[in-house]
Amino acid sequence: MEATVLTRDAELKALKAQVNPHFLFNSLNSINALTSIDPAKAREMCILLAEFLRMTLGLGEKSSISLGEELQLLERFLAIEKVRFGSRLEMRENIQEGCRAALIPPLLLQPLIENAVTHGIASLLDGGTVSVTARRMDSRLAIVIENTCDLDAAKARRGGLGLPNVRQRLAARYGQESDMRVTAENGTFRVQLSLPFEASALLASEVMEQEQPR
Amino acid sequence: MTAAHRPTGAIIVDDEQLARHAIRELLASHPEIPVLAECANGIEAVKAVAEHQPALLFLDVQMPKLSGFDVLELIDTDAAVIFTTAFDQYAMRAFEVHAVDYLLKPIGRDRFEVALAHAKARIGTKSPNGPELAAAARPPQQFLERLVVKDGTRVTIIPIAKLDYAEAQDDYVALASGGKKHLKQQTIASLEACLDPQSFVRIHRSYLLNLERVARIEPYGKDSKIAILCDGTRLPVSRAGYARLQELLEQRPKP
């Protein structure tokens, strides 16, 4: 029961941390500038921002979502940040076939991507690349999020809430079955997650079993 | 009338091109304030300010490598400074405490005009104190992560872990790092206040020492001691300094 409370607590924190006011204000500032120089782009960014917000609201209420859904959210987030950072932000996605159907806690990766942009890319004069990789390894799902980083700035990341929160959520949900590794070397900041591979259909049947007796 | 000694133009500093554009557009209805330069980071800004000597400086707070506060520490200017920020509770509090003008992004026309009118009245007066402003803008319980120094037009960033010791020299501190010394216009007391007291100890009125660098302490003369650093540097330790040093070393786990 304590674990349930812990999970709930971590989930709530994750949701609260979700829409960073910085992100919103910076996006509005970009839209503000675009309205005169590129109205079509301004409109596109409004839509992206609206979609991103709607998705964070909807997904946060579920207990699990597919990796594919989470990626759609991340793609929007990065597309919005790309407008701000221009050529300073490059993105790469390498998702093994079949992995998009895997289930993960909602918004698990979002804070990691946000960290990668705000602490990694934003602190580099010439920017860098944010990449997401996912692959299935037998019964496990391995997700790696990497970003170019300035090692001096990376050291200053101590004390942030994003990483401990992700760790806490994984532990509360999967216990020993999950693993999270954070490394910063050779100009790359890397978060490696390993969790049980749960296919979407499987979970749907589990949910039904649990709910029927009531 | 010669224009040379009466600066009129503005420099816009922001790491986001769109943010710079928005300010440029707001300034467009003020042809008396031409945009002299746009800078995408603090290092460019330090150079551009020295080169153009603007009347007005729009300075973003959050930028890579050098923040807006760092830039303020490094420039020598009479320009009126207007900080810009998207949202930063600590920075905003710092501005309010030090009565520095700032604009929240996105910037509205009316608020912009007010700031501009204030700035015009302020041109030629001394700019706010960089280190104090930066100290006020740091979240509570957080110490300085790095120091910025300018040698001529070269900007050096010294991560705090690489600072060996600091030595007071009148209105300056000499920052010793890896065998080099960098002069910075700051008092040793205000520097001490920004550093983690678990890592840096004032061993003497004129010396602030990184504990990690201490190799040993030896007696020196009748009453005093001397600290010998890992690289062989010898620094005087006062009686009060020795007491502080001992207290800290005792708290530390033995290797």
Quick rundown:
The complex is a heterodimer of chains A (214) and B (255). Chain A is of the alpha+beta class.
Describe the structure.
The complex is a heterodimer of chains A (214) and B (255). The relative contact order of chain A is 0.13. Chain A starts with a helix and ends with a helix. Chain A is built from eight helices and seven strands, in the order H-H-H-E-H-E-E-H-E-E-H-H-E-E-H. In chain B, 31% of the residues lie in helices and 30% in strands. Chain B has eight helices and 15 strands. A five-stranded parallel sheet of chain B has the order 2-1-3-4-5, sandwiched between helices. In chain B, strands 10-9-8-12-11 form a five-stranded antiparallel sheet. A three-stranded antiparallel sheet of chain B has the order 13-14-15. Chain B is elongated. Chains A and B meet through helix 2, helix 4 and helix 6 of A and helix 1 of B.
Features:
heterodimer, A: 214 residues, alpha+beta, Heat Shock Protein 90, five-stranded mixed beta sheet, two-stranded antiparallel ribbon, 54% helix, B: 255 residues, alpha/beta, Rossmann fold, OB fold (Dihydrolipoamide Acetyltransferase, E2P), 2 domains, five-stranded parallel beta sheet, five-stranded antiparallel beta sheet, 30% strand, elongated
Topology:
The complex is a heterodimer of chains A (214) and B (255).
Chain A: H1 2-18, H2 21-37, H3 39-60, E1 65-66, H4 67-85, E2 89-95, E3 103-104, H5 110-120, E4 128-137, E5 140-148, H6 151-155, H7 162-174, E6 179-185, E7 188-196, H8 200-211
Parallel strand pairs in A: 2-4
Antiparallel strand pairs in A: 1-3, 4-5, 5-7, 6-7
Chain B: E1 10-13, H1 17-27, E2 35-39, H2 42-52, E3 56-60, H3 68-74, E4 80-85, H4 89-97, E5 102-104, H5 109-122, H6 130-137, E6 146-151, E7 154-159, E8 165-169, E9 172-177, E10 180-184, H7 188-194, E11 200-204, E12 207-210, E13 214-220, E14 224-229, E15 234-237, H8 239-251
